[in-house]
Amino acid sequence: HNLRLRSAVIMRMREYLINYLGFVEVETPTLFRRTPGGAQEFVVPTRKAGHFYSLVQSPQQFKQMLMSGGIDRYFQVARCYRDEATRPDRQPEFTQLDIELSFTSRDDIMQLIEETLRYSWPKHLPKLQTPFRRITYEEAMEKYGNDKPDTRFGFLLNNVSEIIEKSE
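The structure assignment produced for this chain is given below.
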């Protein structure tokens, strides 16, 4: 069931981005020379001693080349690899919808993602409520103590400094 759902959502994303918004889907390499910065890379040795490739962390470099080459609307369903310590919110291999758009704003990108998800969302599931709630980094840290809060449960931090000061 989940594989069919995933397949249908990705197909609808492609349909929306290509047919309605004029995006170009490009498959970028997943095996490339090592690049500095970012997460740890999975290193892949070659037959030539001392020469290595790496599995890409994201298609960042490639999409920058596409943008400078005149592709002003790009996307791909990208496989990414990061050689990091495993945690519940970190996986060594994952798939992401990678989108790049020339001359746009953060708000335009957020609206594009909302519209793409709304178009792609299966009709048999509850309708997505857009626009999605937005909170600042400061608000996330103050209210949830985390920059990736799970807001489904409403567990908020409460500053009890004043109460403690009065109790002394």
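Interim note for the steering committee: The longest helix spans residues 2-20. Residues 140 and 157 are 10 Å apart (CA to CA).
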